[in-house]
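Model the whole thing, not chain by chain.
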Amino acid sequence: LKHLRLPHVEYVKLLDRYGKESTIGTLYLTATHLIYVEQDNHTRKETWVLHHHISSVEKLSLTVSGCPLLIHCKTFQRLHLLLPRERDTQDVYQSLIRLCQPVSEDELYAFLYNPNQTEAERRDGWDLIDMATDFSRMGLPNEFWDISSINSSYELCSTYPSLLGIPKTATVATVTGSAKFRSRGRLPALSYYHKDTKAAVCRCSQPLSGLSSRCVEDEQMLKCINDANPHCPFIYVVDTRPKLNAMANRAAGKGYENEENYPNIRFHFQGIDNIHVMRSSLQKLLESPTMSDYLVGLESSGWLRHIKSVMDAGVFLAKAVCDEGASVLVHCSDGWDRTAQVCSLACVLLDPYYRTIKGLMVLIEREWISFGHKFNHRCGHLEGNPKEVSPVFTQFVECVWHLCEQFPCAFQFNESYLLIIHDHVYACQYGNFIGNCQREQQEMRLRERTFSLWPYLLQNQAEFQNPLYKRATHNTVLRPSTLPLHFKFWCGMYNRYDKGMQPRQSVVNTLLALTLRHTQEQKTMTELQRLAVVDGILPGPIGTVSLPPDQNGCPRTTPTTSFGQSNGDCTSVSTCAGGKEDSGLEMSSQKEAEGSSATEHELQTKTDKPVSMVTQKEKVTESL
Amino acid sequence: MEFAELIKTPRVDGVVLHRPFLPTVEGTLCLTGHHLILSSRQDNTEELWLLHANIDAIEKRFIGSLGTIIVKCKDLRIIQLDIPGMEECLNIANSIEALSTLDSVSLMYPFFYRPMFEVIEDGWNLFLPEEAFKELESMTDEWRLSEVNKDFSICPSYPALVTVPKDIDDDSLCKAATFRHGGRFPVLSYYHKKNGMVIMRASQPLTGTSGRRCKEDEKLINATLRAGKRGYIIDTRTIAVAQQAKARGGGFEQEANYPQWRRIHKAIERTNILQESLIKIVEACNDHSNSMDRWLSKLEASNWQSQVKEILTTACLAAQCIDREGASVLVHGTEGTDSTLQVTSLAQIILEPACRTVRGFQALVEREWLQAGHPFQQRCAQSAYSNEKLRSEAPVFLLFLDCVWQILRQFPCSFQFNEHFLVMLFEHTYASQFGTFLGTTAAERVKLKLSQKTVSLWSWVNRPQELERFLNPLYEPNSLVIWPSVAPQSLLLWEGVFLRWNRSTKCLDEAYEEMVHIIEYNKELQLKVWVRSSAAGQRRFMGPCISHMHILSL
């Protein structure tokens, strides 16, 4: 709290996107949030912004109407405030600058946050997603692959997980030798095993091949990976970087595999640009002018081109595994950015499990968290080198969204699930995305000191369901088109807080409300039937409402039950707190929509303000 | 003329049809006077029936004796026919070219089409101006239905009956007509029940360089203002374009002569520019290059999305004047038959819930486009592929439909019809078995005796078995004004039209079916709960009574 220079400022104006139509309210600063409260006679609207969500604070030049403060968030929210007094502005500015980028990890929200769980609940929460379970779901270990604890003390590779999938034929000498020949010891290890074809997706970092170095153990390691797939005589080695970048690395003693030294590899470049290019591309995208030259701005930002390059690489992997039955080894430079994107995207394409609510958690936990995507650096959780920040994870989330758009029935989750995960990656409210690798997480004792996000998401999964989900018809690989015309700007992410730009009625929410009602009505039906039997109107128990069999000939009960079936290991849908936003009500002009209550949601968030959000309600009496 | 003269080779066997995302079909190609038919003569394979009128352009290619005809359709589909035999191929190509470019209206298919269904509700009588006026009369007595144009002599592009302010007599209308381009004097387009404000439409005033004025015209539009109120004139052209029009005898309302009106200029492009825009966007969508930059720059260069934005913005402006400012509006551009109608009809969709129903939308198309004299036959003579020299082709109505789709996408529960309905209208404006979109004006339609000699599109669409697939399962009547966002991020490419033939729709169709399924299941369930609970309710209600009686008897 020592960084809080003043707790609140009154008569603060909040300007809209175009610098027009202001509202007047009070700005509060707490240890964790910035809160803006608008209050008139009938409504009270609260905007909560987590300090960790703030990416930049700018003081603009003085105007006649006040001192402007422009706050940009990592969630693409933008607050344009006008404070009445310069001194207050300076204080708020300095407090926020300090609060939004803590110096030490201990200051992160997760170390303060307590969702009222017992120690046992906390432990169970962390145990919810477990890598060994996922390996056994893939059918591992088996005759070709071992799950090795060779890295259990993080000595072989400090940024890798403790459990590694390694070809059975690879000896300790091969593994350790290979690790020494790879940048930062990130040796080839299993990412995903495709049961049907016995092909594997493996990942690593670039080899330290320089201009002519070679390493027998590394060559042996790749041969072992090749041998682990009996059906295919070769493996693909995919360098996700543009060829030029990879060649430049050779001069620095790094580089890429020479096909002459590695028997039976087929080498490919994929041309995904590096974190610096991605960072500036996103900056341009967000600056992209709002009006007539919108498409020009979109093009010159290059953002969709980059998204397409990630998608193309993911599709390449999925095709190699699925169509050719070939194993693939993927790397970029360090193997924790582009490699994570491409491997996880390939998993989503290949395996329907990763298109479920729980499956996506498992995937993020494995490919991103445990394989050492540097969340601390990439998200800028702490004060540090701004050049390390890059929207790598955002791009992965966007790729999944594009897939959801092309395959509306193939995913168990909806857009809001992707958005909430994205929010939490930056929020540091739960411990999952803190630290740069598993070792750091253990050193910070996150399991004892913070809580895991995943149980929270599972408890609230009712609102993340995709009502159109049909697992039965999407039980194989997805084959998206990657023609440029199938990519579009993701307004739901980048203009999420410009409510006026979003569709005013949401199909997903409407259907979600219906499917939730189905479950309730079925309960009512069962209850009525029970009463009817008790009263003697009905002869005896009859089945619940049933529908004619669907196209696959499977008898279907209700669309909702398919959620339950689809993901057997999910905890059951718990109390559904109603659709997030009652979109049915939110129609017509802004003015008319105002005052429409969001009460259910309100009650839920009253006790627990998870992340940045806007709430609005009828006048309430208590103060903050 | 006999069609047979144009068909040298009526039948070729062994023709292979290629279509994107669909299996190839091998079969017999037949040419009739109005159709190109390809049939494999096997069960379970669909036949291709293509109206010659739907063909926009063809290309021929030869490899040895195998000829290939690429057929480019007005609905933007491109198909390929491989025809064995050079002579056959040339004959077929020549016939298609001749048959698809017949100039005479009376040779068009609607005059030959006999419906395979019984016409229960004749679409030609569904939307008569008299009926619309009755509805208006029930709300206000400030307007009258004038027969001044009954022989189409005052304004050839207006219908026989027009709605005008009650206090303006027919003589004044005749004089006002001489002051407006093409005689299109200001008439009522829309009456806003909520506050009595109106949208009127006209063509540009003929002020010329000398600043001519017309007292009757001024009186006519002032008669629509309530005492002390001001109105807005929305000129769909930029001020520069409007200025230039003066040199050709046109112009705009001078402030001095219309002191009660505030003029606003917008920038909706002229028809020839819109056509270029269509050609470019279709070209971009058919370019399957792998370069993102190329796609985005082509999309941008087509300017299509900016046209959509400008039209929607202008419509929102008109609607805002009416609903927010409480002011009446007069809309015009140059001729008053294109951009004017886009604006007035879209404003009604924003303002008036009835226009978002199937019937209401049909009435809107009938009233604001057909009767208002949008020259469909000229505008839709060619589409995006034609190599012919352009005359007056322009995708004015398609742009209107695109704008409606944008609003529909933003308010997916507020329309009774769905996207398929809009796409279907687009198809029928360019090629149809129905007579609805033939002719250029009401006068011409009367002369062609369309209502006697052809079938109305509405007669077909409104049959329950057809209508079903055009209904929006999410529809919940919404009595409010719906304000669409016109931010560029909110306006998407209308994939249903422009990418329709460039993508597989399997997954999207599946999603649509699933949505319908969920909604129907919900209805079924609700009904069951209702039936069961009312039964249970009776029983429960009787329960206490019985016990009460029991007590009494004790």
